[in-house]
Design a protein that fits this description.
This protein is an alpha+beta fold and 228 residues long. The protein contains 8 helices and 8 strands, in the order ααβαβαβαβββαββαα.
Amino acid sequence: MKNFAFKLAAPLALMGALTACAAEPPVVISAPAVDEPAGTEHTATAIFAGGCFWGVQGVFQHVKGVTSAVSGYTGGEARTANYESVEQGDTGHAESVKITYDPTQISYGKLLQVFFSVAHDPTTLNRQGPDRGTQYRSAIFPQTASQRAVAEKYIAQLDASHAFKKPLVTRIETDKKFYTAESYHQNYLTLHPNDPYIVYNDLPKVANLKRISPDLYRADAVLLRNTL
């Protein structure tokens, strides 16, 4: 379980401990062999969970073709879709990010490629960096049958290629509703770039996106303006 107060103001004396939990190096992986065809619609939705939503949101806010990335909770009931409840680890929710994107600019498969290679480590069960619990699980919440098929085939492709040193533990969970998180969780990476947790765990992910996928990287983050 993460300690929110600790994340907001980690003492300098604990920086060494945070460094030990810093973001894992990115894994360069091939694009999905099976992807959704280029669409004519300009709006689609993807929902991913990969540890603390601050970093996942921050990464996708820098991806070209993404028009919005919102932190929230997915997997449980409406009554427990709040930070205090989810952090207990028994609500069924995962900290997740709802991504709105333009399929004419970026495909669902490309979003998955970013998710697996940069946004989190898909081989750690119910854990990302210093955060532990089922609320930090690696999960995909497909919004269509097509998305589910692409995700299933991509996971099989990555496992067969041995791109990662361990098998992927990412779950595919269908028919789960997304609930938007509290306003203080939105745009957190951009608003708190000096927070030690962000410095050591999340800013490296954005830098890795720029380094290994420069064609997908955008310098200016797509922010939720109504939360600023």
